[in-house]
Write a structure and sequence with these properties.
Layout: H1 5-14, E1 19-29, E2 35-40, E3 46-47, E4 49-51, H2 59-71, E5 73-85, E6 89-90, E7 96-111, E8 120-126, H3 136-146, E9 152-153
Parallel strand pairs: 1-7, 5-9
Antiparallel strand pairs: 1-4, 2-3, 2-8, 5-7, 6-7
């Protein structure tokens, strides 16, 4: 996956230690109700489109940008469907990250789905009842985007 320049700058002094980073995910639907997915080039997992906002970039703007950069699809962000901290990730180069993800439901408005950069090996539209093998986290994002429920977040526990 492409590492943004601002993270490379941080890594120059922070090394491989855990970085807490913002992230956005976009669950994009077309007029037929299909969802846009990409098969990541780093681990070959099918996922909704995601990325890291640039410093000062608004999350919804980032979601729309990432969708276009990775898939060639133009979309609009309609609403936030999920806010959730992810698990710690260790990348093959030894970098440790943990993301605070904001997931948006988006609607496709133009473009054609294609592999548009080196972050995916395949991109396509899938009927929600015929998804490729995906993690539960990815499926949960899609389910939340399909629902008319309020934005999901981990409830506070009383300890």
């Amino acid at each position: 996956m492409a590492t943004p320049d601002f993270i490379r700058t941080i890594r120059a002094s922070a090394g491989h230690q855990l970085l807490w980073l913002p992230g956005v995910s976009a669950v994009v639907f077309d007029d037929e109700g299909r969802v846009l997915l990409g098969q990541r080039s780093d681990n070959l997992q099918w996922t909704v489109i995601s990325g890291i906002p640039d410093p000062g970039e608004q999350p919804a703007v980032c979601a729309v940008r990432e969708v276009y950069e990775e898939t060639g699809v133009e979309c609009v962000a309609e609403r936030v469907v999920l806010v959730k901290s992810g698990d710690e990730i260790t990348f093959p180069n030894g970098d440790h990250c943990q993301f605070m993800d904001i997931t948006f439901r988006c609607r496709a408005v133009g473009g054609e789905a294609r592999v548009n950069d080196d972050e995916s090996v395949e991109v396509g539209w899938f009927a929600v009842d015929a998804l490729p093998t995906m993690s539960e986290r990815q499926i949960f994002r899609i389910k939340q985007a399909l629902s008319d429920e309020p934005t999901w977040f981990e409830p506070m526990t009383s300890d």
